[in-house]
Amino acid sequence: MTLDADRSQVYAAEEAAFGGTTLDSITRFEHLERLALQAMSLPWWPGPVVPIVAARADARSSCARSTTDGLEIRLAAPQWTPVTLTHELAHVLAGLTAGHGAGFRRAHVDIVTSVLGTEAGRWLLDAYVAHGLPLPRAERVAEPMPAPRVDGPIAL
After folding, report:
1. Rounded distance, CA 113 to CA 144, Å?
2. Rounded distance, CA 89 to CA 84, Å?
3. Which helix (H) or strand (E) holds 147?
4. Coil, strand or helix: which one is 7?
5. How confident is the model over 98-133, as pLDDT tens digits?
């Protein structure tokens, strides 16, 4: 078992950045699946689409993990939030062996910026800096995804 020295500091930075915001509020699982598919369609996403699955009903924590078919993200119902989803996507993007180190944090800021927006990405970056957690230079172009297009009549 490897030591993940930055884990508690990453969690504290996430709480500082997103605690009490709508991004840390429980939402529908289907909404998170859509967000994940959008993230994995980014031009710089490195690999295949990773399944997003609901964890057992009694699960309390979420994870990104290896399976016999590749990787998957398991989301526990108490953590069905955009913050948790982007955290787990960052584990996939950085590689599961990266722990919560600098490579994970860079991936995390990139995913948050692209999926949740520039302001949210800045909150997270500022929180990492405030907690003394450095990030390597960006290798990806993390820009917010365009808003989904709505066709057809809209009832007001």
Report:
1. 6
2. 9
3. none
4. helix
5. 999 999 999 999 999 999 999 999 999 999 999 999
Domain extents in the chain: 7-130
Torsion angle, CA of 49/56/3/51, rounded to 10 degrees? Answer: 0
* pLDDT of 152: 47
Give the C-alpha separation, 74 to 51, whole Å. Answer: 8
Q: At what angle do helices 29-39 and 102-116 cross, to 10 degrees?
A: 110
CATH topology of domain 7-130: Zincin-like (3.30.2010)
The first and second tokens of residue 74, run together, are 């398991």
Q: How far apart are CA 54 and CA 26, in angstroms?
A: 14
Instruction: Read off the pLDDT of residues 14-71 as tens digits, 9 standing for 90 and up.
Output: 999 999 999 999 999 999 999 999 999 988 888 889 999 999 999 999 999 999 999 9
Phi first, then psi: give them for residue 59, nearest 5 degrees.
-70, 140
Q: Which amino acid is at 51?
A: P
Looking up tokens 């709508």, which residue turns up?
A: 22
Confidence of residue 151 (pLDDT cuts 50, 70, 90): very low
pLDDT, position 150? 42
* Continuous segment of H or E residues that includes residue 66: strand 63-67
Could you tell me the two tokens for 67?
A: 């399976």
